[in-house]
């Protein structure tokens, strides 16, 4: 791909190689709805694009034209589609095309068409492309660690092309950079449950609980690891309520002053609903947080809901509803 | 806090900004069909749909239709499921679904370029013949075919099974199985399940809690934990909560305040968060969100079809 800047600035009408083509103007009809005022360069480039698209001309100059059109509007799905047709017809080097996409994606990392084009290329190249695709998504994520497209592509690469080896370590790196990154926590769960190289959820539970507990203790107000922890006991409520690490964690958080207790409290509520028999210490820790100490006869669940109605006042209706659902 | 500057928003939508140096205009060219849906539905919700010439619009929409029956984002572009739905929705606003050859638009199960023809073996939907798989497309196919009353043209059970496979441990849904729960994807999945009568597959209590946790201090809603609030989530989160009967779990007053603060009360339009530039996309979602919050002066909107309730009633129950 020729990246010379001067050449790129020349419009089709200024280039001798386009002299045989009659550009096709956009036909909006007599009274256009939401008419858009275009810059002359945009209008001209698109007029020439329409001409070659209508003629289905799959030539090198048409390929270059799709590049011009993409620069002007990377969201134009018709242009990307035609580009793919040309790439196939001309049997272009798809690794080079990956280079091209990488450059365009630098400034358009949330563009659906680019990610779709990337997937099309990777699919064609097969498992050999896995390493490169993981590197590419890593680059995008280094700029925006929560880019939904990048994560979606990365999950597709892992499942379709492989490359699981370093994924857990990669997740760990991202969490070291930002322990609040919900996407990284989600990816961690994805790996634990789906990686063919690990033993599956149950086998990984022990080490993952330790990891998650440490993360929670560092930032108890962090929603993601609390949910992750709960997910480690998916379909196994008995283990959930009997694992001493879980209730110990809640107790630790609840007895720390100046800490956000909301998720710890809601976790205890969840444990109770599955049959946890709360310890005296846990009961006392919750009572300490209750501004309304006259309700000592209330069940632990009731007390928790009362505390949360104040501590998480935005969601007062939710906590009131939870209270109404308590059996005792 | 102020009020909803409805008249200003109507003016904003109606006024065509002919700024020649506007990069955004060029970028929006291929999705003009979406723009028409956002703008016109907002006008209808504010009771001002009669301010536009429906015949002109319908004429242009039909010009965007292809041989296959699918619609493009604009004249000269290829058909895509995203624009086919918007086209159907806009025609529904004008009560002109009858201009469609319903068989043509919907029967293309075998024709690759149309909605129903894009259903893959596993029940998922691709967006076009070039195979993007995403639960957004499940919703689009189900919503579009439902409006055309042709839901029987797809394998509903398979489609529902695919959506359920995208359900996560936190009660939410992602774009594909294992994908991070995201309010936009949750809306698509919940709405698709609502339309197909399969809401019992949603853990409403668990999802309801995840959704109401999207409300942050400012009163706005985000789309995933630890992200910034954005007016468009007033729709994605709120409509999902409405469909599972838990909209009262968020603080309505605080959200209303947030949305109103995102208005440009001088020039009209609503932005993603206070003091940012406005656009038609966020104007629609802000107004639709206010509708779900029962803000006075805004018509009721259907949370699954994303069209005014009276339009949906007209489709399914006649005039």
UniProtKB/TrEMBL annotation, chain A:
Cofactor(s) demanded: Mg(2+)
Entry GO CC: CAAX-protein geranylgeranyltransferase complex; protein farnesyltransferase complex
Recorded catalytic activity of this chain's protein: geranylgeranyl diphosphate + L-cysteinyl-[protein] = S-geranylgeranyl-L-cysteinyl-[protein] + diphosphate; L-cysteinyl-[protein] + (2E,6E)-farnesyl diphosphate = S-(2E,6E)-farnesyl-L-cysteinyl-[protein] + diphosphate
Region of interest (Disordered), ranges: 1-32
Keyword Protein transport: no
An MF annotation (GO) of this entry: protein farnesyltransferase activity
Enzyme Commission no: 2.5.1.58, 2.5.1.59
EC class (word): transferase
Pfam families reported for this sequence: PPTA
Keyword terms, alphabetized: Magnesium, Prenyltransferase, Repeat, Transferase
Keyword Nucleotide-binding: no
Protein name as catalogued: Protein farnesyltransferase/geranylgeranyltransferase type-1 subunit alpha
TrEMBL record, chain B:
Source superkingdom: Eukaryota
Keyword Plastid: no
GO terms for cellular component: Rab-protein geranylgeranyltransferase complex
Keyword terms of this UniProt record: Metal-binding, Prenyltransferase, Repeat, Transferase, Zinc
Reaction equations catalysed: geranylgeranyl diphosphate + L-cysteinyl-[protein] = S-geranylgeranyl-L-cysteinyl-[protein] + diphosphate
Domain Prenyltransferase alpha-alpha toroid: 4-306
Entry's Gene Ontology molecular function annotations: metal ion binding; Rab geranylgeranyltransferase activity
EC primary class: transferase
Cofactor note: Binds 1 zinc ion per subunit.
Any single biological process term in GO: root development
Cofactor dependence: Zn(2+)
Protein EC: 2.5.1.60
Family: Belongs to the protein prenyltransferase subunit beta family.
Record text on subunit structure and interactions: Heterotrimer composed of the alpha subunit RGTA, the beta subunit RGTB and REP; within this trimer, RGTA and RGTB form the catalytic component, while REP mediates peptide substrate binding.
Function text: Catalyzes the transfer of a geranylgeranyl moiety from geranylgeranyl diphosphate to both cysteines of proteins with the C-terminal sequence -XXCC, -XCXC and -CCXX.
PANTHER family: GERANYLGERANYL TRANSFERASE TYPE BETA SUBUNIT, GERANYLGERANYL TRANSFERASE TYPE-2 SUBUNIT BETA 1-RELATED
Name under which the protein is recorded: Geranylgeranyl transferase type-2 subunit beta
